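Feature request disguised as a bug: please show the residue count (443) next to Sigma-54 dependent transcriptional regulator in the output. Example input:
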Amino acid sequence: MPTVLIIDDNAAVAIALEVLFSLHDIAALRAASPEEGLDILGREAVDLVIQDMNFTLDTTSGEEGVALFREIRRRHPDLPVILLTAWTHLDAAVELIKAGAADYLSKPWNDERLLTTVTNLIELGQANRALGQRLQRERKAKRELEQNFDLRGLVWQDPATERVLTLACQVARADVPVLITGPNGTGKERIAEIIQANSQVASGPFVVLNCGALPSELIEAELFGADAGAYTGALRPREGKFEAADGGTLFLDEIGNLPLAGQMKLLRVLETGRFERLGSNRERQVKVRVISATNADLSAMIRAGTFREDLFYRLNVIELRLPPLAARSGDILPLALSFLRGKTLHPLAESALLAHGWPGNVRELKNVMARASLLAQGDVIKAADLGLPLVAGASQDAEPDRDAIVQALARAGGVVAQAAGELGLSRQALYRRMERLGIARGA
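Example output, currently without the count:
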């Protein structure tokens, strides 16, 4: 049950408020003086404070209430405070609202308005605490991953990426094949590098073969090597990728492009560690960790007869699904900033980046930021510099939207003052916009 602290020297007022709140499942604590109120705040969990502005008999200046409010704000900067007084001083109300007061109500108050304000502030506070706890958990998980594993300088922030990284690091030391699936340009090779860097063969070679970048008749020679005369143009023996990766890791990108004959030989190597070069009958022995990747639907290829089912299950001992960039939007701005090399993003540019669908994933984002860096006049990238269709003709003077505010709060760890500075707003202007958009308040 949420709890409200009422600080008022008038017992009748405190009792009336206590009864009002009890009828709506809100607990109430009472304090008759600023000192008692501050003492309760130091001992009890309170969701909101309603405080009087005058505590000394025949005093109407409101100075005692101002001092109490500022002390509460100093000790509990994120605690909502409603000011309540029979002596309304407009100038004082405006100043305290600017300083962070949630509302300023006159006695006698309107029960409906007061309850609405209290309920909304409590819900915002609860949402904010939940957001803060989630951000804290995410930051802790990120720190632990970065401290305990070699992530090869990967830039990331989104929980979806964290889940992939956590699983990748968990299986890295197991000597089993890993299949990384996901659209082109999502960073599958980077995940393979992280697996290699944290594996038992981290000191061995990391060899890459893109099976989609070679004609099908040359893939087998690339994988297994070839003796002289094995095919037209093979004038001397050549070492294949398996030999080059002996004692390390072989990353096979676009594994779905491997022809059926190559699939059969690959299956044998995975099972026995043995193979022959093209044009040779001599068996060779290697010990290689195989990581493969594809953007293809291998299950559909199996049904079509273009991919061997037994090879699929051999490669798919562990599958890591890397989502498209649009499905891990928390990575977009950190990645964009990493590509800028010192330049910053205007809030509207951030909104445009978050709104874009990114069909080309991280590769597309990198190209967009390279272009924007060249076109930008100065050190701030504006929305128009990005060349994205969704922001064509956008006004640079418009207010930041919901996504821009949420991302700024995330980067600021929930500290509203810091996020407001980044967005070019005052703290109270940001608070008002957050409340209009239903965004949880920060500290």
